[in-house]
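User: Kinesin light chain, Adineta steineri:
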Amino acid sequence: PINHPDFAQSYNNIGIVYYNIGEYSKALSFHEKALGIQETTLPKNHPSLAISYNNTGKVYKNMGEYSKALSFYEKVLGIQGKTLPASHPDLAESYNNLGSLYHNMEEYSKALSYFQRALDIRNVSLPPNHPHLKTTKEWIEIVKQKL
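Assistant: Predicted structure for Kinesin light chain:
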C-alpha cells in the first residue's frame, strides 16, 4: 500500500540524493512525504522516524531555516535519548548536529555544550584515532575562540 514504511524509505533515499546535489526544496518535499507515512504508521520512538527527522533537519539547516532545523533535531534527540544507550555514537552525532546548528545561529555557549557532549560520548565509544573525535575537538576550539 502507498502508506507502507518501505515507500517512506524510498522517499527518504530520493530526498538524500536531492540534498547531496543541493536541491534542498526537492529534498524537503521527499523527506516530508516520508514523514507523512512514518508519523502515521510507526511508533513515536521508532529509529526510522529519528532518521527522517534528522534528514529533514539537515535540509532546513542548509536552507538557513534554523528554527525549523532545531525543532527536527530536538525530535531526533528525544527519540534517541529514549531508545539508545547513553554512549551510542548516533547520539553523539545528534549532539554534534545541534552544536553545529547553534554555531550557525551564533549561540556559541549552547554550541559548546552540545559539542562537548558529543566529544564525551565519542571518547568512550570510538577509537582514539577516529576522525570524528578530531573534528569535534576542532569545533570546540572554533567555538571557544568565538566566546
